């Protein structure tokens, strides 16, 4: 399973124009959450600023194309879809030694 962040921005035309209410936003996200499984996708969370007209959705699925199709199914435009890895808690962390981590940090600075 892969994870994705997709972005929506009113200034780029991918967030509804005008002032969206919380209930209207919830309805949009609920529609995405309902349609997503048809494409093998999960709509897990959204971070939104209604005032700014921006949203960031956290999704999972087999690939970017499936996430795109889920959005299109509910007529929800987006600016970008980016594959990401979660690194909080135990999510997707691969055990590496502290020495390997220090070496990687030193090499990255060089």
Draw up the topology in text.
Blueprint (H helix, E strand, L loop, with lengths): L1 E8 L12 H14 L6 E8 L4 E8 L2 H10 L6 E5 L13 H12 L1
Antiparallel strand pairs: 1-3, 1-4, 2-3
Key structural traits:
110 residues; 26% strand
Q: Output the strand order for the largest sheet.
A: 2-3-1-4
Number of strands: 4
* Biggest pleated sheet: 4 strands, antiparallel
Q: Give the H and E element order.
A: EHEEHEH
Query: What is the structural class?
Result: alpha+beta
Rounded average pLDDT: 87
Strand content: 25-35%
What coarse outline follows from CA principal-axis ratios? globular
Sequence stretches where pLDDT stays below 50 over 5 or more residues: none
Question: Roughly how many Å is the radius of gyration?
Answer: 17 Å
Total helix count?
3
Alpha-carbon distance between the two ends: 34 Å
User: What percent of the residues sit in helical stretches (DSSP H or I)?
Assistant: 25-40%
Q: Concise description?
A:
The protein is 33% helix and 26% strand.
Describe the fold and architecture:
By secondary structure, the chain is of the alpha+beta class. Helices cover 33% and strands 26% of the residues. The chain has three helices and four strands. The protein has helices at residues 22-35, 64-73, 98-109, and strands at 2-9, 42-49, 54-61, 80-84. It has a four-stranded antiparallel beta sheet. The two termini are 34 Å apart. 16% of the residues are buried. The mean pLDDT is 87.
